[in-house]
Write a structure and sequence with these properties.
The protein is α/β, with parallel strands linked by helices and about 150 residues long. The protein has five helices and five strands, in the order H-E-E-H-H-E-H-E-E-H. Helix 1 runs parallel beside helix 5. Pfam families: MafB19-deam.
Length: about 150
């Protein structure tokens, strides 16, 4: 799990360098990286351009199917409600999370969309993989943002 989370962290650092919220995602199938992505919401002026959505779109295109049943998704920060819904819709098998997000997380923190008992698909979730590294990126980003605002 660690090697794919390291790739997700690299993606998150790309987002950080672009002044995007530093979240990265990696889609894996049969121990092969299918797609990687990072947040592009600001650059694309698109509220749906979250790392998870972008990696799911790219993965579906590469695999020629929206059913990503044998895929695992690595993400540096717990998905929001929109992304959690996309994860369920795409039938992703496993979700591996770096750091949980108590302010907007939808894979267990605030709500648990990926394992809601009324949905027809549930996702196996692992959390806390390289948690300190993933959490520190977010802390550093928002500290820098606050510093810029206070100047």
């Amino acid at each position: 799990m660690r090697k794919y989370m390291e790739l997700a962290i690299k993606e998150a650092k790309k987002a950080f360098a672009k002044a995007e919220v530093p979240i990265g995602a990696v889609l894996v199938k049969n121990d092969e990286v299918i797609a990687t992505a990072h947040n592009l919401k600001e650059i694309n002026n698109d509220p749906t351009a979250h790392a998870e959505i972008l990696v799911i779109q790219e993965g579906a295109q590469r695999l020629h199917t929206w059913r990503l049943e044998d895929c695992d998704l690595y993400v540096t920060v717990e998905p929001c409600a929109m992304c959690a819904g996309a994860i369920v819709q795409s039938r992703i098998r496993r979700l591996i999370i770096g750091a949980m997000e108590p302010k907007f997380g939808a894979a267990g923190s605030i709500v648990n969309i990926v394992n809601h008992p009324k949905f027809n698909h549930r996702v196996e979730v692992f959390e806390g993989i390289m948690e300190e590294e993933c959490s520190q990126l977010m802390k550093d980003f928002f500290l820098l943002l606050r510093e810029k605002r206070n100047k």
